[in-house]
Each structure stands twice: as C-alpha cells, then as structure tokens.
Amino acid sequence: MTRLRPPASRRAGAANLCDDVIGRITRLISSGAYPPGSSLPSERDLSVQLGVSRPSLREALRTLSVIGALETRHGSGTQVAASSADILKSSFAFLLLIDKPTIVDIYETRELIEVHLVGRAAERRTDAELAAIAAGLDGMRGLPLGDPRSVEANLRFHAAIASAAHNLVLERMMSCLHDGIRATMEASAPGVLDAEHALQVHEQIFEAIARQNPADARRAMTLHMGMGVDDARRVNAQGTAPAPALRTRRTRTVS
Ligand SMILES: [Zn+2]
Questions:
Q1: Which of 177, 154, 151, 174 has its CA nearest to residue 164?
Q2: Judgement on whether residues 18 and 114 belong to the same structural domain of the protein
Q3: Distance of CA 168 from the midpoint of ligand 1 (Å)
Q4: Looking at the structure, do residues 148 and 40 belong to the same domain, yes or no?
Q5: Which of 54, 95, 215, 218 would you label with 70, given CA atoms 20 to 30 Å apart?
Q6: What protein residues have CB closer than 5 angstroms to ion ligand 1?
Q7: pLDDT (tens digit, 9 = 90+) per residue, 58-77?
Q8: Number of domains observed in the structure of the chain
Q9: Interaxial angle between packed helices 54-66 and 8-30, expressed in degrees from 0 to 180 and rounded to the nearest 10
C-alpha cells in the first residue's frame, strides 16, 4: 500500500524540530542580536549559527513569517517584523472565523477596552491626535451610518482615539479587533433608530477628549457601546441577516 503521509511519529518529530528551531530564533531575537526591523543573516549563515539544517530553518522561518513575526521581502531577505501588529491580527482573524463571536461579545470587548482608552486619550492626546479624531468624525457627517464611507470614518475615529491613548498594547488589541468592529458597525446600522443621536454621541466623545475631560469621555463612550448593543438586538428582533463574521445571538449549546 502506498503511504501518502509520513507516519504520525515522524510528523510529530518534524513538528517538534520546527518548534525547537523557532525557539532558537526567538531567543536570538530576544537576546537583542536582531532588533525589530533588522535583517536576519542569510539562510546559510543562520543555519550554521543555529546548528540546524536548512530545510528545518526554512520551515521555521516560513512559520514565523505566516504569524507576522518575520517579514520576507523579495531580494532583501528576511527581517524581524518592525511591529507586532500583524502577529496578533492573524490570530484574531481566525478567532472571528472559527468562534464567530456574537455582536454583543464584540461590543462587550469594545466597551472594556474603549471606555478605558477614551479616558486615557482625553488625558494624553496631542493636538495632532485630536485633529485625527476630528477627521474621523468629519468623515461620518452627512452619511447614513451603514454607508461604507461612514463605517470607514467611524473606524478611523475609534482607531485615532486608541492611538491618542498612548498605550501600545491596547492599541494593538484594538487593531486586532478592527475587522470585528467593522462587522459590528455594519450589522448594527440597520437597527439604529436615530442616526442624528448616534452622531451626537460621537460628537460628545470628541468634545470630551478636546476638553481633556476623561470622566465625560468615558461616560459618552459607555453610552455609545450600550447603544450599539441595543441596535444589534433590534436587528436581531427584525430578523435581518447578521454580518458574515458575526452571529447576532449565541446558538451554540456547547462552548
Ligand atoms: Zn463609533
């Protein structure tokens, strides 16, 4: 009988070897020898340095590139990623794909992160960051909330607030949620009863940040997130189809 795949024990051995090589590369990066954005040695030199075969090294480099820890550019070899943005993003993309969180799941997560971020943004924002938040708000004006241009402007508004909070880890978490946030905006838009009020809440958030009043900013963001959940529930009650990445209600019996 023709064996199409290597035996399980050999596959496990290959996976362990790949993990081992990844561990060696990770230690090399964490030692400071190759800081973020720097180039790794050629494949030949690195295999000698790490004491591993080139096929094993190549597999490890490919894995680290897929998760966004390394960047491979044609003609310029392999670099350590300059930022961690893509690392978390790819994992979160699969979280949305596989777990299909509900809109309420996403809004609760947004509330946890964004209410905190908006308070920090009010305390820490620069004038340039305030201008970026204002630009997002301007982009929403005069458009229906479900309009793709309004959704993009709304995303820019929230991303600019995350950036103005000056907390890189939370900003990264927000950028991971980007696709999920877009899906919540698209899914809840048909449930918005008063578009003018929805825009006003964004104005309140902006004004509180402009006045550098964290308590008001947090209050307005809490209101915004609560309204989002209500809008999503109305969409669910209307039976409108949810955005493809999300479910409007939890249907799993086992979690
Ligand atoms: Zn918003």
A1: 174
A2: no
A3: 21
A4: no
A5: 95
A6: 154
A7: 999 998 988 888 988 777 78
A8: 2
A9: 70
